[in-house]
Amino acid sequence: MTVRPRLRGRAAPETTKRSLDVVRATEPFEAFYEREFRSVVGLAYALSGSTSGSEDLAQDAFIAAHKNWDKVSTYDKPEAWVRRVVSNMAVSRFRRGITETKALAKLAGFRSEVASLPDLPHEAEHFWSNVRKLPKRQAQSLALHYLEDRPVAEIAEILECSASTVKVHLHKGRKSLAARLGIELGEDR
Amino acid sequence: MTTLDTLARSSAGAIHHSVSYVPVSPASITGATGGLAFGAFGRYVLAGVVAGIVLIGALFIVGPDAGDVTGDSVPSTTAVTPTTAATPIPETNAPETNAPETNVLVPTTVVDPVDHDPVSVVPPVAAPDTTTTSLAPDVEPPFLKIDSPGDGDRFEKAVLRFSGRTEAGATVLASGKFTAPVASDGSWFIDLVLAPGANGVVFAASDAAGNKTTASVTVYFDEPATVETTTTTSTTVVTWEFTANQKYGSCELPVPYDIFSGKTKSGATVTISSPYGNGSTTANGEGVWSVKVEFPTAPYNETFVVSATDYVGTTKTFEFVNLYTG
Q1: Interface test with A, best of B3, B4, B49 (most A CBs within 10 A)
Q2: pTM for this model (two decimals)
């Protein structure tokens, strides 16, 4: 990361009207919501495995964004912020759901049926269910990498870690996932 | 592409296909946050109630000896029920009491007035008419006033609300491209992100007949200072800055290495140091520097810190990890 030095306490000279253009207008929340909602639901589903749960998670994240829109809208990438929120909540909810289901099954034979997304092939469901079983950061990195086709730098921005850390998560995650799925990973640089 | 990648791509495509059926209803958030929040809350409560009924029913059917069968005692059962019913409700589900003003959320459907040619869209003046009911063409431009901010005002925040008044039914455009929604009483506002320094914003109001009025305001964004530079005299002028960039961050080769580069003062020495490898270089006449540093003894898969330091001691830090599995 590069830190650019700036002179302390000096206001921009009034005579230098160098930047006479407004950089940009803040995007209306509604447009942001319509553009991002579906893909955020997809990310939430990949990490939580519950259709209704993923919609709830996405809604919760967007409500949080809406409440803080004055601030969130000024970020370079508001979509990164909402994905960070939803990916953290999704993993937490998936693990809490497992614990609760196990407790209920143990006590009263209660079985919780988690509905998959409509039209989701068994092979895809099997793949994502194995992604969810990976450690949290590995699962998040793989979901953002495969589902949203995001480069390492953007994943690092969303997960608030360094690019090299993301590379490690992807490396380990792919290795573990291939082992779980019984796939030969092969040579990759 | 490996088999895993192929499977991953097809699985990702399946999710994209499935979520394309998920409805998008922005009104549920922008207009009825409370209702939406209660919907999510209701699911929590419903899940808790259902779980409670099932558990109580199971206790009645199986009897108090069920604990012996399952290996758990009755107190464990009663401990689980409230846990489920009282699943913490996300803070975001709380009823909205201080929601930001929603005017900016209302989409505008006003036609971009920039595309209008004021001359061509003014209704032609009718030929002398014998009737007394003919309407005179609207050739009067709408009034436009910028109430806030004042011209020359200074601010230390990047997002600034501009507001004013115009003729009811007119459209207002900021800097030629950002539409400011106009209320029925003619008031308008828009939030704009300012660049550091002077920001001149031109507002243009246009009425249905294409008449146009412009008004402008210049405001200053004084960006808060964050980093203090080195100074040697009271009239120091900073002509250089130290920058450092990392090219890779990881390496899968037998002798792992990374390349660091950046800018500093012309002729200055930059030192790269880490627990597993060091290096140094001198900036050229334009202050540009670049150096390749090897980390031959770096342990596998262990992230460590690499520092780049210039001649006055300014340091930038990076992370590196050796991924050579050997």
Answers
A1: B4
A2: 0.42
